[in-house]
Amino acid sequence: MISNLSRVCQAKEPSGNADSGAPCWTWLAGGLAFGSLTSLGVGYYLGKKKEERAQQKREEKQQQAKEEDAKLRQRTVIPGDFKELNEGIVRLIRAEVCSLTEQLSQALEKKQALMREKEAVEGCRNAEWGWWSKQLGMKSHVIKPSRHALLHHQIDMDVCVERIHELKKKIAELQSYLDRGEPVLRLSQDLENAPEVFTCPITFDVMDSPVVASDGYTYEEGSIRKWLRTSRVSPKTNEDMHSTLLQPNNSLRLAIKSWREEVHAGHSKMSGEL
After folding, report:
1. What is the DSSP letter of 274?
2. What's the rounded Cα separation, in Å, for the pair 39 and 33?
3. Which range marks the domain in which residue 135 is found?
4. Bridge partners of 218?
5. What are the protein's GO molecular function terms (predicted)?
6. pLDDT (0 to 100) of residue 248
7. Which of 157, 192, 227 is the last residue before a domain boundary?
8. Mean pLDDT within 240-249
9. Quick one: DSSP state of residue 239?
10. Half-sphere exposure of 205 toward its Cβ, with a 13 Å CA cutoff?
């Protein structure tokens, strides 16, 4: 372009006049400057538009990833509190204990009635011998069934007492189980509340063997390998993963190990104080 403009200026110059070409060269320089500014403006505008489209695409992918994470979290089943279940069992057992205690009380009342009957029968000893001799058959008839009834109620009472002891033992075992389970429950809750950087983006669990995939994110090794067997799209960015190579993230693994040791040490100290 410059050579063409130069030839045009030379064609317009009168022969033998060296200063006559100055206006032409001035015009040439102005045209070049205007063309450069125009090129810069167009380049800046195209670059800005490209950057805005890239930013919009990144925001759409981030929103999609958040929606997928929300769906996965909604499908997560939250286990119930086993402590409430065990307390319900304890309440049922205690109700049964109360029922058996009432039965035992009734058995004791029957036993006392039989004892009073026995004492009344044995009071015949103070009667005269003749009357005693006449009533001897009745005495034998009354005492024998009374002894059988008393023995029967004694057996029922022994069974109730044994059952109560068994239930009390079960209550003590359940209480001990609850006492041991509460620290375990607190420890489980603390482990679930781990820093987000320690959790796998696929399972949302604390990682044991963190590895870095080709998309630049860290996953649990077993989970990402299972993912790559069925898909080559990044579970985090939803973009194609051009490589299946995985690099161990040793620094993160050591950080997770240190964090777990601190959590366990804290709960061991609390258990010792209790």
Report:
1. -
2. 10
3. 82-192
4. 212
5. ubiquitin-protein transferase activity
6. 95
7. 192
8. 91
9. S
10. 11
Residue 227 exposed, middle or buried by CB count within 10 Å (0-12, 13-18, 19+): middle
> What residues are paired with 201 via a beta bridge?
none
Structure-token pair, residue 183: 């620290």
For the chain, what is the radius of gyration of the CA atoms? 48
Running DSSP on this structure, what letter comes out for residue 212?
E
Question: Is-contact 108 160, C-beta < 8 A?
Answer: no
The token pair that represents 223 in the structure block: 């989970």
Q: Is the predicted pLDDT of residue 163 greater than 90, yes or no?
A: no
Helix (H) or strand (E) holding 219: strand 218-220
DSSP-derived secondary structure letter, 208: S
Q: Is 163 exposed, middle or buried (0-12, 13-18, 19+ CB in 10 A)?
A: middle
Return d(Cα 125, Cα 143) in angstroms, integer.
13
Mean pLDDT on 77-98 = 69
90 & 150 share domain = yes
Contact 246, 212 (CB under 8 A): yes
Which CATH number goes with the domain that contains 254? 3.30.40.10
What b/e readout covers 120-157, taking b as 16+ CB neighbours within 10 angstroms? ebeeeeeeeeeeeeeeeeeeeebeeeeeeebeebeebb
Amino acid at 266: G
Instruction: Please report the pLDDT score of residue 97 as a whole number.
Output: 76
The two tokens of residue 16 are 């033998």
The pLDDT-based confidence of 151 (bands split at 50, 70, 90) is low
pLDDT in tens, 98-115: 877 888 778 878 878 777
What pLDDT is stored for residue 18 in this prediction?
A: 46
Q: Tally the residues of the chain.
A: 274
pTM of the shown model: 0.34
In sequence order, the 6+-apart residues with CB closer than 8 A to the CB of 183 are 267, 270, 271, 274
Position 220 in a domain? yes
